[in-house]
Amino acid sequence: MNKDDVIRHLTRHVLDKKQAKMSVDKVFEIIKHGLKRDGKVVISNFGSFHLKTARPVTRRNPKTGAKVQVPAKQKVRFKPSENLLKK
């Protein structure tokens, strides 16, 4: 399921397509803002999103064989709630 599928599903139940798209976009915007501000977003009975810092690593360029330093970066991780995992 992708973003368009979520919008299409929401349109069938509640809103027209324009309002559904705006609602889905706003939810994603709120999650991004919460991650930037607090580093964690918890949605009851669904799960939590949190930031994890990946350490810098050295990789090898497959074409040239040269070593390349990949800098540290932030990754978003999702942990589902136990209620979501049931069934």
UniProtKB/TrEMBL annotation:
Q: Does this entry carry the keyword DNA-binding?
A: yes
Q: Which GO terms describe its cellular component?
A: cytosol
Presence of keyword DNA-binding: yes
Task: Identify the keywords attached in UniProt to this record, alphabetized.
Answer: DNA-binding
GO MF annotation terms: DNA binding; structural constituent of chromatin
Which InterPro entries does the entry mention?
Hist_DNA-bd, IHF-like_DNA-bd_dom_sf
Its family? Belongs to the bacterial histone-like protein family.
What name appears for this protein in its UniProt entry? DNA-binding protein
Which taxonomic lineage is given here? Bacteria, Pseudomonadati, Elusimicrobiota, Elusimicrobia, Elusimicrobiales
